[in-house]
Amino acid sequence: MLAIAAAVVFGLGLLLDLVNTRIGGISGTTFLLLGLLLLALHQAGIGSAGPRTTTGGGGWRRRR
Fold first, then answer.
1. Is 1 exposed, middle or buried (0-12, 13-18, 19+ CB in 10 A)?
2. Burial class (CB in 10 A: 0-12, 13-18, 19+), 32
3. pTM of the model
4. How far is CA 25 from CA 21, 22, 31, in A?
5. Can you give the pLDDT at residue 38?
6. pLDDT-based confidence at 13, cuts 50/70/90?
7. Which positions, given as ranges, span the membrane (predicted)?
8. pLDDT bucket at 17, cuts 50 / 70 / 90
9. What is the pLDDT of residues 29-57, one digit of tens each?
10. Using CA of residue 21, residue 27, residue 31, residue 36, what is the dihedral sign?
11. pLDDT score for 36
């Protein structure tokens, strides 16, 4: 989820940088740094669904 948010922030930052504008004093560089922060949090595992639990090797198979 954080990776998707980072992609949106990067896209907005790129758009602001291309048209060379600022939104309320926030420039494209600020969006770049925010996107990098979101990616770092995503890589650290923050905001993920958590580790998946598995049932011992091949628990999805039907036993006879």
1. exposed
2. middle
3. 0.66
4. 9, 6, 12
5. 92
6. confident
7. 31-54
8. confident
9. 888 899 999 999 999 988 776 666 555 55
10. positive
11. 92
Place of tokens 């580790």: 51
Q: Quick one: pLDDT at residue 27?
A: 83
Say how many residues make up the chain.
64
Q: How far apart are CA 52 and CA 21, in angstroms?
A: 44
Amino acid letter for position 50: G
Q: Which amino acid is at 5?
A: A
Q: For 35-60, give one letter per residue: b (16+ CB within 10 A) or e.
A: beebbebbeeeeeeeeeeeeeeeeee
Q: How many whole angstroms separate alpha carbon 21 and alpha carbon 28? A: 8
C-alpha 27/C-alpha 63 separation (Å) is 60
36: its two tokens: 């990098």
44, 29 Cβ separation under 8 angstroms: no
